[in-house]
Design a protein that fits this description.
10 strands; 5-stranded mixed β-sheet; 5-stranded parallel β-sheet; 10 helices; 41% helix; alpha/beta
Length: 253
């Protein structure tokens, strides 16, 4: 398999991971972040969350970005998580970010979807659960926990900037190149691309295969009129890279 190139839309601090996984599978990539992560305005809120964690049964991190915001808070303030508070991570990337910061992880769901976290927390009736999330996170996890009669507190740890204007020209240049697909790792990366793209560039994007990390991302891509060719079974960067390789091997035959 040669001469395959994929547009990687992950935020700048994460794009190289997926690009490296693709390169290991003989797939080239062009990196244009269609979203940016902004945690600085929420640092005080994360600090306050850590200070009042005592008595919470679970702290749930729904992304690696949230995990890194927590780790930065602990490093900056010198605080430690209370011993009685267990930590749940939505998937292996989030868990890895926590462990790099020396934070023990008590639960990672087998299915790497945000709402799947709720199923592994046991009986949460009357339990206090703190969610550290993005500003635009969907309400499904909170609702699932509240249906189980948990006491849920949410803290915004960062915001996602969809379509950072500085990437407009880079996206146009990338879409003018020969490409075999666009890799999307969240619904926000899809929306970011569509926001950045000119009408002509959007039409170009719709001629390419949309390569999606999971079903939620694929649903957003279809809603944007993109041609979804890949939905990874394992909702991780490695799972997506493997699914992309399998797809390209199939269309080459």
């Amino acid at each position: 398999m040669t001469n395959r190139t994929v547009l990687v839309t992950r935020p700048a601090e994460r794009a190289s991971r997926l690009a490296g996984l693709l390169a290991a599978r003989a797939i080239g990539s062009v990196e244009v972040p269609t979203i940016a992560i902004d945690a600085e305005p929420f640092a005080a809120g994360v600090d306050a969350m850590v200070e009042r964690l005592a008595g919470a049964d679970w702290l749930v991190l729904t992304s690696a970005n949230g995990a890194e915001a927590l780790a930065e808070c602990l490093q900056r303030t010198g605080h430690r998580l209370p011993h009685g508070t267990r930590v749940a991570a939505v998937g292996p990337a989030t868990a890895a970010a926590l462990r790099r910061a020396g934070i023990a992880v008590d639960h990672v769901p087998a299915e790497f979807l945000t709402v799947a976290v709720a199923d592994g927390l046991g009986d949460v009736h009357g339990r206090r659960i703190v969610l550290a999330r993005a500003d635009a996170a969907t309400p499904q996890l909170r609702e699932a926990l509240e249906e189980r009669e948990a006491v849920v507190e949410e803290v915004v740890a960062y915001r996602i900037v969809e379509g950072p204007p500085a990437m407009h020209d880079a996206l146009h240049a990338a879409l003018c190149r020969p490409l075999d697909g666009i890799a999307f790792t969240s619904g926000s990366t899809v929306r970011g691309l569509m926001r950045l793209a000119s009408p002509t560039d959007r039409e170009r994007a719709r001629t390419l295969s949309a390569l999606c990390i999971g079903p939620v991302t694929a649903e957003v891509a279809r809603g944007a009129g993109l041609d979804v060719a890949v939905v990874a079974n394992e909702h991780t960067a490695a799972g997506l890279a493997g699914a992309i390789r399998t797809y390209f091997q199939g269309v080459s035959q």
